[in-house]
Amino acid sequence: MAYIQFIMIFLTSLNRFSMIFWSATYEKVWNKMFKFLVVFVFLFPIPFTYTIFLSSTYYTYTETLDCYTVSSTMNREFIYNQLLPFFAAVTISTAILNIASFYRLSRMKYKISVAERNLLFVSGALFVVQLVADVNTTVTRLFVNDSNKDTIWMQVAVTLLPYVSDGLTLIHPWLFLAFSSKARRCFMIMYFPRHAKVASTGNNSTHFASATTRKTMDTNRI
Description:
Family: Belongs to the nematode receptor-like protein srg family.
Number of domains: 1
Shape: globular
Helix content: over 70%
Order of helices and strands: HHHEEHHHHH
GO biological process, one term: sensory perception of chemical stimulus
Membrane topology: Multi-pass membrane protein
Number of helices: 8
Largest sheet: 2 strands, antiparallel
Strand content: 5-15%
Pfam family, one: Srg
Strand order of the largest sheet: 1-2
Radius of gyration: 24 Å
InterPro entries: 7TM_GPCR_serpentine_rcpt_Srg (IPR000609)
Structural class: mainly alpha
Oligomer: single chain
Distance between the termini: 70 Å
Mean pLDDT: 77
Number of strands: 2
């Protein structure tokens, strides 16, 4: 799952990068490549994770955290030796794409649409979450050992690990809601229809009042 999450964030940044640098042609290219990218995202992790399918899983009790965790007979050393370099390479690549995109945006003489700008901000926010996940996973793997596992910082790192993983998955729809007014409006209509109707009525009343005021002013002028 981590491979897919990081690849998706990288592809999001790559999409925003191409949107900024090749605004006239990027959409056609992405439309043609989309189906191939979907297949690539799902097939790419298999060579690095196939040992998980061949191993058995079981529950273990962690005394320091007073909880149960899922363990496996798989070779963790093999998994992490592949995972950490991948995390580092993808995170650095994503950082380069985002920095280049924001720099180009700051130097552009013409303004892009609000939607395109918000998509770029979404890409930056995704990178921040990706960076936190990368640092947390690296610290947990390389620095947590028997001599310091009881320290507060190491316990925090271990405890945050599953939440960071969930954050990588759940951040996409929440950012979509945060940066898209249309998505927020549809969300309100779907889950809070009463509030949406009140807001809609208020907007209509304001529009009617404005129209009436303009009509009165025109009449007075005549």
